[in-house]
Amino acid sequence: MSAERERWELLPGVGMGPLRFGMSPAEVADALQVSEPQKRVGGPYGQEDFADGLKVFYDTGQLACIALDAVTGPQVLLAGFALAGREPGQAHQFLLDYAAEHGSCLLYTLDGSLSLTDLGLLLRSQEVGDVHLSRPVLVMEEWLESEYYRDRLPLEGASATDQPPQSQ
After folding, report:
1. β-strand 75-78 against 7-11: which pairing, if any?
2. Each residue of 91-124: pLDDT tens digit?
3. Sheet holding 114-116: strands in order across?
4. Is residue 55 within 8 Å of residue 48, measured between CB atoms?
5. Pairing of strands 19-20, 39-41
6. What gap in Å lies between CA 20 and CA 118, rounded to an integer?
7. Contact 69, 126 (CB under 8 A)
C-alpha cells in the first residue's frame, strides 16, 4: 500500500470514527466531509458506499451498520490490535483472548464469523485475491441481538424481497 490507512476509534454501542448510530444520510456525509456517497444501493436497507472501502447501512433512515473493507477501509483498533486486513484465524484468536480478559459475550454466526456482541463488533472474512482477510463490521445492538439481521450482515447483495421482520 502506498498510503497509510486512516485510523478510526471503535466506540462500542455508539459508532466508529466520526460516525454515530442514528445519524441521517446527510449527517453521515457531513461527518465524512463529502457531499454525497460514491454509490447508493437499493434493497431493503439504505446502503451507501463511500471512498476507501466504507459502506454504511440505514434502518428507517438512521445509521445502523458500518462495514469496512479489509484492505482499503479505515483501520480500527481494539486494545491496540488492528482488526482489518488480518489473517482471520489470528483476528479470531485475538477476539477470543479479548473476550476472556474483558468478559465480553461471544457469538458465532451461521457463516462462522465471530462477534463480540457487547461491543457490537462482527468480524467477517473478505476474499482478497487468493487469500481471506478480516473485515470489521460494527452494528447497533438491536441488529446483533436479532438472528435475522446478524446472519445477513453486512447486507451487500440483499435482495429487495429479503425484507426484515416487522416490528410489533
Report:
1. parallel
2. 999 999 999 999 998 988 877 888 898 899 999 8
3. 39-41, 46-50, 54-59, 62-68, 131-139, 121-128, 114-116, 106-108
4. yes
5. unpaired
6. 16
7. yes
26-31 contacts, C-beta under 8 A, 24 or more apart: 27/63, 28/56, 28/63
Cis peptide before 154 (omega within 30 of 0): yes
Burial, 146: exposed, middle or buried (Cβ in 10 Å; 0-12, 13-18, 19+)?
A: middle
pTM for this one?
Answer: 0.85
What cell does 101 get? 480478559
- How much of the chain exceeds pLDDT 70, in percent? 85
Q: Report residue 163 as a C-alpha cell.
A: 425484507
Cell 446483533: give the residue. Answer: 144
As given in the structure block, the three cell numbers for residue 24 are: 441521517
